[in-house]
């Protein structure tokens, strides 16, 4: 199972990490975050992150799409949206 980057643990990370495995990418994120909670759960098999979640962590392979996803989520009101700047590459080197 994927672990949250150090200091960024929490249910929101796990929810989004699980959902992200089935998403097409940033292009699908806006639609997903605008869904009703029941529709999100039916499609992604996990609870939809809440606007008030503190650690809604986005990441990608190199960092650019994770940053874009973070900006998109913040624009939709997810104040705890954060980008894991080291991206998957750094996480894999340290934790993988």
From TrEMBL:
The active site is at 60 (cysteine persulfide intermediate). This is Thiosulfate:glutathione sulfurtransferase isoform X3. It comes from the Eukaryota. It comes from Delphinapterus leucas (Beluga whale). Residues 37-96 form the Rhodanese domain. Residues 1-19 form the signal peptide. The keyword Signal applies. It holds the Pfam family Rhodanese. GO terms for molecular function: thiosulfate-thiol sulfurtransferase activity. GO terms for cellular component: cytoplasm. GO terms for biological process: sulfide oxidation, using sulfide:quinone oxidoreductase.
């Amino acid at each position: 199972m994927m672990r949250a980057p150090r200091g960024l643990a929490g249910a929101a990370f796990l929810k989004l990490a699980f959902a992200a495995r089935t998403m097409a990418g940033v292009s699908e994120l806006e639609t997903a975050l605008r869904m009703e909670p029941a529709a999100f759960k039916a499609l992604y098999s996990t609870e939809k992150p809440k606007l008030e979640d503190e650690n809604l962590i986005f990441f990608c392979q190199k960092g650019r799409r994770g940053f874009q996803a973070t900006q998109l989520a913040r624009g939709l009101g997810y104040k705890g949206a954060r980008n894991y700047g080291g991206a998957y590459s750094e996480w894999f080197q340290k934790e993988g």
